[in-house]
Design a protein that fits this description.
Blueprint lengths: L6 E7 L9 E3 L6 E3 L4 E2 L4 E4 L3 H8 L1 H8 L3 E8 L5 H5 L8 H11 L13 H11 L3 E12 L2 E4 L5 E6 L7 E2 L11 H4 L5 E2 L6 H30 L4 H13 L4 E3 L4 E2 L3 H14 L2 E4 L2 E5 L2 E10 L4 E8 L6 H4 L4 H36 L15 H5 L9 E9 L5 H14 L13 H8 L4 H34 L5 E2 L5 H35 L7 H39 L5 E2 L3 H21 L1
Parallel strand pairs: 1-5, 1-18, 6-17, 6-18
Antiparallel strand pairs: 2-3, 3-4, 7-8, 7-13, 7-16, 8-9, 9-12, 10-11, 14-15, 16-17, 19-20
Helix pairs in contact: 14-15, 15-18, 16-17
Protein backbone atom coordinates (compact mmCIF):
# COMPACT_ATOMS: atom_id res chain seq x y z
CA UNK A 1 0.00 0.00 0.00
CA UNK A 2 1.30 3.47 -0.94
CA UNK A 3 2.00 5.95 1.86
CA UNK A 4 -0.29 8.42 0.04
CA UNK A 5 -3.30 6.17 0.69
CA UNK A 6 -5.13 6.32 3.99
CA UNK A 7 -4.84 2.92 5.63
CA UNK A 8 -8.30 1.86 6.81
CA UNK A 9 -8.80 -0.67 9.60
CA UNK A 10 -11.84 -1.81 11.54
CA UNK A 11 -12.08 -2.93 15.14
CA UNK A 12 -15.24 -4.70 16.25
CA UNK A 13 -16.17 -4.43 19.91
CA UNK A 14 -17.02 -7.92 21.18
CA UNK A 15 -20.55 -8.63 22.34
CA UNK A 16 -21.49 -10.12 25.68
CA UNK A 17 -21.38 -13.92 25.95
CA UNK A 18 -24.54 -15.40 24.50
CA UNK A 19 -25.57 -12.25 22.60
CA UNK A 20 -25.75 -12.34 18.78
CA UNK A 21 -23.27 -10.38 16.68
CA UNK A 22 -24.50 -8.44 13.66
CA UNK A 23 -21.02 -8.07 12.16
CA UNK A 24 -19.25 -11.05 10.60
CA UNK A 25 -15.81 -11.32 8.98
CA UNK A 26 -14.80 -13.46 6.03
CA UNK A 27 -11.52 -15.13 7.13
CA UNK A 28 -10.37 -15.54 3.51
CA UNK A 29 -10.91 -12.03 2.14
CA UNK A 30 -11.23 -10.00 5.35
CA UNK A 31 -14.52 -8.48 4.15
CA UNK A 32 -17.07 -7.30 6.70
CA UNK A 33 -20.69 -8.36 6.32
CA UNK A 34 -23.59 -6.84 8.26
CA UNK A 35 -26.86 -8.49 9.12
CA UNK A 36 -28.56 -6.06 6.71
CA UNK A 37 -26.66 -7.61 3.79
CA UNK A 38 -24.17 -4.78 3.34
CA UNK A 39 -20.61 -5.93 2.60
CA UNK A 40 -17.49 -3.79 3.02
CA UNK A 41 -14.26 -4.98 1.46
CA UNK A 42 -12.02 -1.94 1.96
CA UNK A 43 -10.45 -2.63 5.41
CA UNK A 44 -6.78 -3.55 5.26
CA UNK A 45 -7.13 -5.26 8.65
CA UNK A 46 -9.99 -6.24 10.94
CA UNK A 47 -9.53 -6.74 14.68
CA UNK A 48 -12.26 -8.53 16.61
CA UNK A 49 -12.05 -8.79 20.38
CA UNK A 50 -10.18 -7.08 23.19
CA UNK A 51 -6.64 -8.37 22.58
CA UNK A 52 -4.52 -5.20 22.76
CA UNK A 53 -1.35 -6.93 21.53
CA UNK A 54 -3.11 -8.00 18.35
CA UNK A 55 -4.70 -4.56 17.96
CA UNK A 56 -1.35 -2.75 18.20
CA UNK A 57 0.37 -5.04 15.70
CA UNK A 58 -2.43 -4.58 13.18
CA UNK A 59 -3.37 -0.92 13.71
CA UNK A 60 -0.33 1.03 14.87
CA UNK A 61 2.94 -0.88 14.40
CA UNK A 62 3.19 -0.11 10.63
CA UNK A 63 2.63 3.57 11.37
CA UNK A 64 5.45 3.68 13.92
CA UNK A 65 7.79 2.09 11.40
CA UNK A 66 6.93 4.84 8.90
CA UNK A 67 7.52 7.49 11.57
CA UNK A 68 10.99 6.13 12.31
CA UNK A 69 11.92 6.57 8.64
CA UNK A 70 11.10 10.29 8.63
CA UNK A 71 7.37 10.54 7.84
CA UNK A 72 4.87 12.51 9.91
CA UNK A 73 2.18 10.02 10.94
CA UNK A 74 -1.36 10.24 12.28
CA UNK A 75 -3.62 7.58 13.78
CA UNK A 76 -7.33 8.45 14.03
CA UNK A 77 -9.99 6.51 15.94
CA UNK A 78 -13.52 7.09 14.57
CA UNK A 79 -16.85 5.58 15.52
CA UNK A 80 -20.10 5.95 17.42
CA UNK A 81 -20.19 6.59 21.13
CA UNK A 82 -19.33 3.53 23.20
CA UNK A 83 -17.71 1.63 20.32
CA UNK A 84 -14.27 1.38 21.97
CA UNK A 85 -12.24 4.30 20.58
CA UNK A 86 -10.71 5.33 23.92
CA UNK A 87 -10.19 1.67 24.79
CA UNK A 88 -8.22 1.29 21.55
CA UNK A 89 -6.14 4.42 22.09
CA UNK A 90 -5.46 4.28 25.84
CA UNK A 91 -6.94 1.11 27.27
CA UNK A 92 -9.63 0.31 29.84
CA UNK A 93 -10.09 2.50 32.94
CA UNK A 94 -7.50 1.88 35.63
CA UNK A 95 -4.82 0.32 33.42
CA UNK A 96 -2.58 3.40 33.15
CA UNK A 97 -1.16 3.22 36.67
CA UNK A 98 2.25 2.62 38.18
CA UNK A 99 0.99 -0.61 39.76
CA UNK A 100 0.45 -2.07 36.29
CA UNK A 101 3.96 -0.98 35.28
CA UNK A 102 5.46 -2.64 38.37
CA UNK A 103 3.56 -5.83 37.60
CA UNK A 104 4.81 -5.72 34.02
CA UNK A 105 8.40 -5.28 35.23
CA UNK A 106 7.99 -8.30 37.50
CA UNK A 107 6.68 -10.37 34.60
CA UNK A 108 9.57 -9.23 32.39
CA UNK A 109 11.88 -11.65 34.16
CA UNK A 110 9.78 -14.57 32.89
CA UNK A 111 9.80 -15.83 29.31
CA UNK A 112 6.08 -15.09 28.87
CA UNK A 113 6.42 -11.34 29.26
CA UNK A 114 5.02 -9.03 26.57
CA UNK A 115 6.33 -5.79 25.13
CA UNK A 116 3.83 -3.72 27.16
CA UNK A 117 1.32 -4.13 29.99
CA UNK A 118 -1.47 -6.37 28.78
CA UNK A 119 -4.35 -3.84 28.78
CA UNK A 120 -2.49 -0.80 27.46
CA UNK A 121 -3.76 0.78 24.25
CA UNK A 122 -1.92 1.67 21.07
CA UNK A 123 -0.68 5.10 22.23
CA UNK A 124 1.34 3.96 25.28
CA UNK A 125 2.52 0.89 23.37
CA UNK A 126 3.82 3.08 20.54
CA UNK A 127 5.76 5.26 22.98
CA UNK A 128 7.22 2.16 24.64
CA UNK A 129 8.38 0.97 21.22
CA UNK A 130 10.07 4.34 20.65
CA UNK A 131 11.78 4.01 24.03
CA UNK A 132 13.14 0.61 23.00
CA UNK A 133 14.32 1.78 19.58
CA UNK A 134 18.11 2.39 19.49
CA UNK A 135 19.04 5.97 18.70
CA UNK A 136 15.68 7.53 19.65
CA UNK A 137 16.08 10.18 22.32
CA UNK A 138 14.27 13.13 23.87
CA UNK A 139 10.72 11.79 23.61
CA UNK A 140 8.17 14.47 24.46
CA UNK A 141 4.38 14.49 24.28
CA UNK A 142 1.59 17.05 24.45
CA UNK A 143 -2.17 16.71 24.60
CA UNK A 144 -5.00 19.05 23.61
CA UNK A 145 -8.75 18.67 23.46
CA UNK A 146 -11.31 20.33 21.20
CA UNK A 147 -14.36 21.20 23.26
CA UNK A 148 -17.14 23.41 21.86
CA UNK A 149 -14.83 24.61 19.06
CA UNK A 150 -12.22 25.82 21.57
CA UNK A 151 -8.83 24.14 22.01
CA UNK A 152 -7.53 23.48 25.52
CA UNK A 153 -4.14 22.32 26.78
CA UNK A 154 -4.66 19.21 28.91
CA UNK A 155 -1.14 19.48 30.35
CA UNK A 156 -1.59 23.07 31.54
CA UNK A 157 -4.80 23.07 33.60
CA UNK A 158 -6.93 23.21 30.42
CA UNK A 159 -5.57 26.61 29.39
CA UNK A 160 -7.13 27.80 26.16
CA UNK A 161 -4.84 27.79 23.13
CA UNK A 162 -4.90 29.84 19.96
CA UNK A 163 -5.22 27.99 16.69
CA UNK A 164 -4.29 29.32 13.30
CA UNK A 165 -2.09 29.12 10.23
CA UNK A 166 0.65 31.20 8.71
CA UNK A 167 -2.00 33.48 7.20
CA UNK A 168 -4.64 33.97 9.88
CA UNK A 169 -5.31 33.39 13.54
CA UNK A 170 -8.12 31.16 14.72
CA UNK A 171 -10.86 33.49 15.87
CA UNK A 172 -11.37 37.22 15.36
CA UNK A 173 -10.33 39.99 17.70
CA UNK A 174 -13.34 42.29 18.13
CA UNK A 175 -14.28 44.78 20.80
CA UNK A 176 -16.49 43.27 23.47
CA UNK A 177 -17.79 39.77 24.03
CA UNK A 178 -19.96 37.84 21.64
CA UNK A 179 -23.37 39.36 21.15
CA UNK A 180 -26.28 37.83 23.02
CA UNK A 181 -28.10 37.22 19.75
CA UNK A 182 -25.64 34.53 18.73
CA UNK A 183 -26.97 31.03 19.18
CA UNK A 184 -23.52 29.43 19.04
CA UNK A 185 -22.32 27.83 22.27
CA UNK A 186 -18.69 28.40 21.35
CA UNK A 187 -19.35 32.08 20.59
CA UNK A 188 -20.69 32.58 24.10
CA UNK A 189 -17.49 31.02 25.44
CA UNK A 190 -15.05 33.43 23.75
CA UNK A 191 -12.26 34.66 26.01
CA UNK A 192 -10.59 38.05 26.04
CA UNK A 193 -12.78 39.38 23.24
CA UNK A 194 -11.56 36.68 20.83
CA UNK A 195 -14.51 35.16 18.99
CA UNK A 196 -14.10 31.71 17.42
CA UNK A 197 -14.37 31.45 13.64
CA UNK A 198 -17.84 29.89 13.94
CA UNK A 199 -19.30 32.94 15.77
CA UNK A 200 -22.39 34.39 14.08
CA UNK A 201 -22.62 37.79 15.76
CA UNK A 202 -22.92 40.99 13.70
CA UNK A 203 -19.34 42.14 14.26
CA UNK A 204 -17.91 38.81 13.19
CA UNK A 205 -20.20 38.84 10.14
CA UNK A 206 -18.82 42.23 9.11
CA UNK A 207 -15.23 41.03 9.55
CA UNK A 208 -16.06 37.90 7.56
CA UNK A 209 -17.34 40.04 4.70
CA UNK A 210 -14.02 41.92 4.63
CA UNK A 211 -12.15 38.63 4.64
CA UNK A 212 -14.32 37.24 1.82
CA UNK A 213 -13.57 40.30 -0.27
CA UNK A 214 -9.84 39.81 0.26
CA UNK A 215 -10.12 36.13 -0.69
CA UNK A 216 -12.03 37.02 -3.89
CA UNK A 217 -9.24 39.39 -4.84
CA UNK A 218 -6.67 36.66 -4.22
CA UNK A 219 -8.63 34.19 -6.34
CA UNK A 220 -8.84 36.71 -9.17
CA UNK A 221 -5.09 37.28 -9.00
CA UNK A 222 -4.55 33.51 -9.08
CA UNK A 223 -6.81 33.20 -12.12
CA UNK A 224 -4.80 35.85 -13.94
CA UNK A 225 -1.54 34.08 -13.13
CA UNK A 226 -3.01 30.79 -14.35
CA UNK A 227 -4.05 32.41 -17.63
CA UNK A 228 -0.55 33.75 -18.11
CA UNK A 229 0.87 30.32 -17.34
CA UNK A 230 -1.36 28.64 -19.92
CA UNK A 231 -0.29 31.11 -22.57
CA UNK A 232 3.28 30.05 -21.91
CA UNK A 233 2.18 26.45 -22.65
CA UNK A 234 2.41 25.12 -19.11
CA UNK A 235 0.54 21.84 -18.82
CA UNK A 236 -2.70 21.67 -16.86
CA UNK A 237 -1.14 19.13 -14.48
CA UNK A 238 1.52 21.69 -13.50
CA UNK A 239 -1.15 24.29 -12.86
CA UNK A 240 -3.14 21.83 -10.77
CA UNK A 241 -0.01 20.91 -8.81
CA UNK A 242 0.69 24.59 -8.16
CA UNK A 243 -2.84 25.11 -6.88
CA UNK A 244 -2.66 22.07 -4.66
CA UNK A 245 0.70 23.12 -3.23
CA UNK A 246 -0.68 26.58 -2.48
CA UNK A 247 -3.51 25.00 -0.52
CA UNK A 248 -2.06 21.78 0.89
CA UNK A 249 0.99 23.31 2.52
CA UNK A 250 -1.06 25.75 4.57
CA UNK A 251 -1.13 23.95 7.90
CA UNK A 252 -2.87 24.81 11.13
CA UNK A 253 -1.39 24.31 14.58
CA UNK A 254 -1.82 25.33 18.17
CA UNK A 255 0.73 27.67 19.70
CA UNK A 256 2.31 27.16 23.10
CA UNK A 257 0.95 23.78 24.12
CA UNK A 258 2.85 22.18 26.99
CA UNK A 259 5.07 19.23 26.12
CA UNK A 260 6.07 16.71 28.77
CA UNK A 261 9.23 14.55 28.64
CA UNK A 262 8.60 10.80 28.55
CA UNK A 263 11.74 8.91 29.57
CA UNK A 264 10.39 5.96 31.59
CA UNK A 265 7.29 3.73 31.47
CA UNK A 266 6.21 5.27 34.77
CA UNK A 267 6.28 8.80 33.33
CA UNK A 268 4.34 7.52 30.32
CA UNK A 269 1.68 6.02 32.59
CA UNK A 270 1.37 9.29 34.54
CA UNK A 271 1.03 11.30 31.33
CA UNK A 272 -1.63 9.03 29.81
CA UNK A 273 -3.51 8.87 33.10
CA UNK A 274 -3.44 12.67 33.35
CA UNK A 275 -4.87 12.97 29.83
CA UNK A 276 -7.62 10.50 30.66
CA UNK A 277 -8.45 12.23 33.95
CA UNK A 278 -8.34 15.82 32.62
CA UNK A 279 -10.25 15.25 29.43
CA UNK A 280 -13.95 16.11 29.52
CA UNK A 281 -16.03 12.94 29.84
CA UNK A 282 -19.48 12.08 31.16
CA UNK A 283 -21.79 9.10 31.30
CA UNK A 284 -25.02 8.44 29.45
CA UNK A 285 -27.26 5.52 28.56
CA UNK A 286 -24.83 3.98 26.06
CA UNK A 287 -21.46 4.66 27.67
CA UNK A 288 -20.25 5.10 31.24
CA UNK A 289 -17.14 6.93 30.04
CA UNK A 290 -18.29 8.99 27.09
CA UNK A 291 -15.68 11.46 25.83
CA UNK A 292 -17.29 14.86 25.28
CA UNK A 293 -14.33 16.30 23.38
CA UNK A 294 -11.89 15.34 20.66
CA UNK A 295 -8.44 14.54 22.04
CA UNK A 296 -5.16 14.89 20.11
CA UNK A 297 -1.91 13.57 21.60
CA UNK A 298 1.27 14.55 19.77
CA UNK A 299 4.46 12.56 20.32
CA UNK A 300 7.75 13.99 19.12
CA UNK A 301 11.21 12.47 19.38
CA UNK A 302 14.60 12.88 17.78
CA UNK A 303 16.80 10.14 16.39
CA UNK A 304 20.58 9.93 16.35
CA UNK A 305 20.53 10.80 12.64
CA UNK A 306 18.79 14.10 13.35
CA UNK A 307 15.41 12.94 12.05
CA UNK A 308 12.37 14.01 14.03
CA UNK A 309 9.76 11.37 14.80
CA UNK A 310 6.26 12.87 14.81
CA UNK A 311 3.21 10.76 15.57
CA UNK A 312 -0.25 12.17 16.37
CA UNK A 313 -2.94 10.07 18.04
CA UNK A 314 -6.50 11.35 17.58
CA UNK A 315 -9.29 9.99 19.77
CA UNK A 316 -12.44 11.48 18.31
CA UNK A 317 -15.57 11.92 20.38
CA UNK A 318 -18.26 9.50 19.27
CA UNK A 319 -21.22 10.50 17.17
CA UNK A 320 -24.47 9.96 19.01
CA UNK A 321 -28.22 10.25 18.80
CA UNK A 322 -29.57 12.23 21.72
CA UNK A 323 -32.79 10.23 21.72
CA UNK A 324 -30.84 7.03 22.40
CA UNK A 325 -28.21 8.38 24.80
CA UNK A 326 -30.75 10.29 26.89
CA UNK A 327 -28.49 13.35 27.02
CA UNK A 328 -30.08 16.51 28.42
CA UNK A 329 -28.86 19.96 29.37
CA UNK A 330 -25.11 20.40 28.94
CA UNK A 331 -24.76 16.85 27.62
CA UNK A 332 -27.19 17.64 24.81
CA UNK A 333 -25.26 20.82 23.93
CA UNK A 334 -22.03 18.79 23.90
CA UNK A 335 -23.61 16.16 21.67
CA UNK A 336 -24.68 18.80 19.15
CA UNK A 337 -21.18 20.31 19.13
CA UNK A 338 -19.62 16.86 18.64
CA UNK A 339 -21.96 15.97 15.78
CA UNK A 340 -21.37 19.37 14.15
CA UNK A 341 -17.58 18.94 14.16
CA UNK A 342 -17.86 15.37 12.85
CA UNK A 343 -20.18 16.62 10.11
CA UNK A 344 -17.51 19.19 9.18
CA UNK A 345 -14.99 16.35 8.98
CA UNK A 346 -17.41 14.44 6.75
CA UNK A 347 -17.67 17.41 4.38
CA UNK A 348 -13.87 17.65 4.17
CA UNK A 349 -13.56 13.94 3.41
CA UNK A 350 -16.36 14.12 0.83
CA UNK A 351 -14.72 17.02 -0.99
CA UNK A 352 -11.25 15.42 -0.95
CA UNK A 353 -12.71 12.17 -2.30
CA UNK A 354 -14.46 14.09 -5.12
CA UNK A 355 -11.23 15.89 -5.99
CA UNK A 356 -9.34 12.60 -6.26
CA UNK A 357 -12.14 10.96 -8.27
CA UNK A 358 -12.39 13.89 -10.70
CA UNK A 359 -8.62 13.93 -11.07
CA UNK A 360 -8.68 10.25 -12.07
CA UNK A 361 -11.45 10.85 -14.60
CA UNK A 362 -9.59 13.76 -16.18
CA UNK A 363 -6.41 11.72 -16.37
CA UNK A 364 -8.21 8.82 -18.10
CA UNK A 365 -9.99 11.09 -20.57
CA UNK A 366 -6.95 13.36 -21.08
CA UNK A 367 -9.04 16.45 -20.37
CA UNK A 368 -7.05 19.68 -20.10
CA UNK A 369 -9.61 21.74 -18.16
CA UNK A 370 -9.36 21.82 -14.39
CA UNK A 371 -11.12 23.64 -11.61
CA UNK A 372 -9.93 24.07 -8.08
CA UNK A 373 -12.48 23.03 -5.45
CA UNK A 374 -12.62 24.53 -2.00
CA UNK A 375 -12.05 22.10 0.87
CA UNK A 376 -13.82 23.50 3.98
CA UNK A 377 -11.08 22.93 6.54
CA UNK A 378 -11.97 26.14 8.37
CA UNK A 379 -15.51 25.04 9.18
CA UNK A 380 -14.43 23.56 12.53
CA UNK A 381 -11.44 23.54 14.85
CA UNK A 382 -11.19 19.75 14.47
CA UNK A 383 -10.77 19.89 10.68
CA UNK A 384 -8.18 22.63 11.04
CA UNK A 385 -6.13 20.48 13.40
CA UNK A 386 -6.50 17.47 11.07
CA UNK A 387 -5.41 19.48 8.02
CA UNK A 388 -2.25 17.41 7.56
CA UNK A 389 -3.97 14.09 8.27
CA UNK A 390 -6.51 14.40 5.45
CA UNK A 391 -5.23 15.77 2.17
CA UNK A 392 -1.95 16.97 3.69
CA UNK A 393 1.57 15.73 4.24
CA UNK A 394 0.97 12.99 6.81
CA UNK A 395 0.92 9.21 6.56
CA UNK A 396 -2.53 8.55 7.99
CA UNK A 397 -4.18 5.45 9.38
CA UNK A 398 -7.83 5.40 10.48
CA UNK A 399 -9.44 2.87 12.81
CA UNK A 400 -13.22 2.55 12.44
CA UNK A 401 -14.56 1.30 15.78
CA UNK A 402 -17.93 -0.41 15.58
CA UNK A 403 -20.19 -2.24 18.03
CA UNK A 404 -21.31 -5.76 17.20
CA UNK A 405 -24.78 -5.67 18.82
CA UNK A 406 -27.77 -5.70 16.44
CA UNK A 407 -29.28 -2.64 18.17
CA UNK A 408 -26.31 -0.57 16.95
CA UNK A 409 -26.56 -1.78 13.35
CA UNK A 410 -27.56 1.59 11.87
CA UNK A 411 -24.65 3.41 13.53
CA UNK A 412 -22.25 0.62 12.54
CA UNK A 413 -23.27 0.84 8.87
CA UNK A 414 -22.94 4.64 8.95
CA UNK A 415 -19.42 4.44 10.40
CA UNK A 416 -18.34 1.84 7.84
CA UNK A 417 -19.71 3.90 4.96
CA UNK A 418 -17.76 6.89 6.23
CA UNK A 419 -14.62 4.75 6.22
CA UNK A 420 -15.40 3.73 2.65
CA UNK A 421 -15.40 7.38 1.59
CA UNK A 422 -12.08 7.91 3.37
CA UNK A 423 -10.47 5.29 1.13
CA UNK A 424 -10.65 7.73 -1.80
CA UNK A 425 -8.66 10.46 0.00
CA UNK A 426 -5.00 10.82 -0.98
CA UNK A 427 -2.25 12.60 0.93
CA UNK A 428 1.14 13.89 -0.18
CA UNK A 429 3.49 12.73 2.60
CA UNK A 430 7.07 13.94 2.55
CA UNK A 431 9.92 11.98 4.06
CA UNK A 432 12.34 14.15 6.02
CA UNK A 433 15.81 12.64 6.33
CA UNK A 434 18.39 13.51 8.96
CA UNK A 435 21.83 15.08 8.79
CA UNK A 436 24.58 12.63 7.88
CA UNK A 437 27.13 14.67 9.79
CA UNK A 438 24.94 14.66 12.90
CA UNK A 439 24.46 10.91 12.57
CA UNK A 440 28.23 10.42 12.46
CA UNK A 441 28.64 12.70 15.47
CA UNK A 442 26.19 10.72 17.63
CA UNK A 443 27.67 7.38 16.63
CA UNK A 444 31.20 8.64 17.26
CA UNK A 445 32.33 7.73 13.72
CA UNK A 446 33.30 9.75 10.69
CA UNK A 447 36.02 12.27 10.04
CA UNK A 448 36.86 14.82 12.75
CA UNK A 449 35.83 17.58 10.34
CA UNK A 450 32.30 16.15 9.94
CA UNK A 451 31.93 15.60 13.68
CA UNK A 452 33.08 19.15 14.40
CA UNK A 453 30.71 20.56 11.76
CA UNK A 454 27.76 18.66 13.25
CA UNK A 455 28.61 19.79 16.77
CA UNK A 456 28.97 23.40 15.62
CA UNK A 457 25.62 23.24 13.82
CA UNK A 458 23.86 21.91 16.92
CA UNK A 459 25.51 24.51 19.17
CA UNK A 460 24.51 27.27 16.76
CA UNK A 461 20.89 26.10 16.80
CA UNK A 462 20.86 25.96 20.61
CA UNK A 463 22.40 29.43 20.78
CA UNK A 464 19.77 30.79 18.38
CA UNK A 465 16.96 29.29 20.46
CA UNK A 466 18.47 30.71 23.66
CA UNK A 467 18.67 34.15 22.07
CA UNK A 468 15.08 33.92 20.85
CA UNK A 469 13.91 32.76 24.29
CA UNK A 470 15.72 35.63 26.00
CA UNK A 471 14.20 38.18 23.63
CA UNK A 472 10.69 36.73 23.92
CA UNK A 473 10.94 36.61 27.73
CA UNK A 474 12.02 40.26 27.80
CA UNK A 475 9.04 41.23 25.63
CA UNK A 476 6.74 39.22 27.89
CA UNK A 477 8.09 40.99 30.98
CA UNK A 478 7.59 44.34 29.28
CA UNK A 479 3.98 43.48 28.53
CA UNK A 480 3.49 42.43 32.15
CA UNK A 481 4.91 45.72 33.42
CA UNK A 482 2.50 47.52 31.10
CA UNK A 483 -0.38 45.75 32.79
CA UNK A 484 -1.27 43.29 30.02
CA UNK A 485 -0.76 40.21 32.20
CA UNK A 486 -4.19 40.61 33.77
CA UNK A 487 -5.09 39.64 37.31
CA UNK A 488 -6.50 41.71 40.14
CA UNK A 489 -7.15 45.33 39.25
CA UNK A 490 -5.23 47.75 41.52
CA UNK A 491 -7.52 49.83 43.67
CA UNK A 492 -10.50 47.53 43.30
CA UNK A 493 -13.17 47.14 45.99
CA UNK A 494 -11.47 45.50 48.95
CA UNK A 495 -14.38 43.25 49.94
CA UNK A 496 -14.94 41.89 46.43
CA UNK A 497 -11.21 41.36 45.86
CA UNK A 498 -10.88 39.48 49.15
CA UNK A 499 -13.91 37.34 48.29
CA UNK A 500 -12.49 36.44 44.87
CA UNK A 501 -9.09 35.59 46.39
CA UNK A 502 -10.71 33.25 48.92
CA UNK A 503 -12.77 31.61 46.19
CA UNK A 504 -9.71 31.07 43.98
CA UNK A 505 -7.74 29.59 46.89
CA UNK A 506 -10.58 27.21 47.78
CA UNK A 507 -10.94 26.22 44.13
CA UNK A 508 -7.20 25.52 43.91
CA UNK A 509 -7.41 23.26 46.97
CA UNK A 510 -10.46 21.46 45.54
CA UNK A 511 -8.77 20.93 42.17
CA UNK A 512 -5.73 19.43 43.91
CA UNK A 513 -8.03 17.19 45.96
CA UNK A 514 -9.90 16.05 42.84
CA UNK A 515 -6.60 15.28 41.06
CA UNK A 516 -5.45 13.19 44.02
CA UNK A 517 -8.78 11.35 44.20
CA UNK A 518 -8.56 10.54 40.49
CA UNK A 519 -5.07 9.13 40.95
CA UNK A 520 -6.16 7.03 43.92
CA UNK A 521 -9.24 5.81 42.04
CA UNK A 522 -7.17 4.82 39.01
CA UNK A 523 -4.68 3.00 41.25
CA UNK A 524 -7.52 1.16 43.02
CA UNK A 525 -9.13 0.13 39.72
CA UNK A 526 -5.75 -1.05 38.50
CA UNK A 527 -5.16 -3.12 41.64
CA UNK A 528 -8.52 -4.91 41.38
CA UNK A 529 -7.71 -5.87 37.76
CA UNK A 530 -4.27 -7.19 38.69
CA UNK A 531 -4.20 -10.97 39.02
CA UNK A 532 -3.40 -12.11 42.54
CA UNK A 533 -3.87 -15.19 44.69
CA UNK A 534 -6.35 -17.80 43.54
CA UNK A 535 -7.83 -18.58 46.94
CA UNK A 536 -10.30 -17.04 49.35
CA UNK A 537 -7.91 -14.21 50.19
CA UNK A 538 -8.33 -12.98 46.62
CA UNK A 539 -12.12 -12.75 47.01
CA UNK A 540 -11.73 -10.89 50.29
CA UNK A 541 -9.19 -8.54 48.76
CA UNK A 542 -11.43 -7.88 45.74
CA UNK A 543 -14.38 -7.13 48.03
CA UNK A 544 -12.27 -4.70 50.02
CA UNK A 545 -11.01 -3.02 46.86
CA UNK A 546 -14.57 -2.76 45.54
CA UNK A 547 -15.67 -0.97 48.72
CA UNK A 548 -12.65 1.32 48.44
CA UNK A 549 -13.44 2.13 44.81
CA UNK A 550 -17.07 2.87 45.70
CA UNK A 551 -16.06 5.28 48.50
CA UNK A 552 -13.52 6.99 46.24
CA UNK A 553 -16.13 7.48 43.54
CA UNK A 554 -18.52 9.04 46.02
CA UNK A 555 -15.80 11.34 47.34
CA UNK A 556 -14.78 12.29 43.79
CA UNK A 557 -18.37 13.06 42.77
CA UNK A 558 -18.88 15.19 45.90
CA UNK A 559 -15.68 17.16 45.39
CA UNK A 560 -16.40 17.60 41.68
CA UNK A 561 -19.86 19.01 42.39
CA UNK A 562 -18.44 21.41 44.97
CA UNK A 563 -15.72 22.50 42.57
CA UNK A 564 -18.22 23.01 39.75
CA UNK A 565 -20.40 25.26 41.89
CA UNK A 566 -17.42 27.21 43.22
CA UNK A 567 -15.90 27.55 39.75
CA UNK A 568 -19.14 29.07 38.50
CA UNK A 569 -19.07 31.64 41.30
CA UNK A 570 -15.41 32.48 40.64
CA UNK A 571 -15.96 32.83 36.89
CA UNK A 572 -18.89 35.18 37.48
CA UNK A 573 -16.78 37.28 39.85
CA UNK A 574 -14.02 37.48 37.26
CA UNK A 575 -16.44 39.16 34.84
CA UNK A 576 -16.49 42.23 37.12
CA UNK A 577 -14.01 44.55 35.40
CA UNK A 578 -13.43 46.54 38.58
CA UNK A 579 -11.70 43.64 40.33
CA UNK A 580 -10.34 41.32 37.62
CA UNK A 581 -8.78 41.77 34.19
CA UNK A 582 -8.09 39.02 31.66
CA UNK A 583 -4.64 38.87 30.01
CA UNK A 584 -4.50 40.79 26.76
CA UNK A 585 -4.25 38.97 23.45
CA UNK A 586 -0.64 40.16 22.80
CA UNK A 587 0.41 38.90 26.24
CA UNK A 588 -1.28 35.51 25.74
CA UNK A 589 0.35 35.07 22.33
CA UNK A 590 3.77 36.05 23.64
CA UNK A 591 3.43 33.66 26.59
CA UNK A 592 2.55 30.86 24.17
CA UNK A 593 5.58 31.75 22.06
CA UNK A 594 7.83 31.57 25.14
CA UNK A 595 6.48 28.13 26.03
CA UNK A 596 7.00 26.88 22.49
CA UNK A 597 10.59 28.13 22.26
CA UNK A 598 11.41 26.68 25.67
CA UNK A 599 10.02 23.29 24.60
CA UNK A 600 12.13 23.28 21.41
CA UNK A 601 15.21 24.27 23.40
CA UNK A 602 14.69 21.47 25.90
CA UNK A 603 14.42 18.95 23.05
CA UNK A 604 17.63 20.18 21.44
CA UNK A 605 19.55 20.17 24.72
CA UNK A 606 18.37 16.68 25.73
Amino acid sequence: MSVAEIRMSVRVRPTKPGDPCAVTTDPRTGALALATGDVFQYPSSVVVGSDQDLAYDALCAPLVRHALTGYDCTLVAYGQTGSGKTHTMFGPPGCLVEARVRQWHEESSSSSSSDAPRDWGVFPRAVLELMRTPGVRSIRASAVEVYHENVFDLMNARAQLSLGSSRTKFGRRVFGAAESGSDDVAARGGLGGVHPSCCTCHKCFALQEVENKRMRQEREATRIRMTASRTSRRSSSDVRETLQNQNVRETFATVGETSVPLDTPESLARFARSVEATRTSKSHNLNDRSSRSHCLVRVRAKTASGTFVNVTFVDLAGSERVARTGATGDKAHEARAINASLSALGRVVKMLAEIHTNHGRRASSQTTTTRHKHVPYRDAALTMLLRDAFGGGSVTSVVINVAGEPRHLDETACSLRFGERMCSVRNAPTRVLGDVNENAHHRGVGSPKKIAASSAKRDAKIAALQTALKAATAELDALALRGDAGGFVPGGPVTEVRSLKRGMEKLHVLDAEIAELRVRLAEAEGEIRTPSDTNKSRDAKDAEETRKISSLRVALATSSNRAEVLRGVVERQKTIKAIWAEPSVPYARKAAEVRQIRSELEMEEA
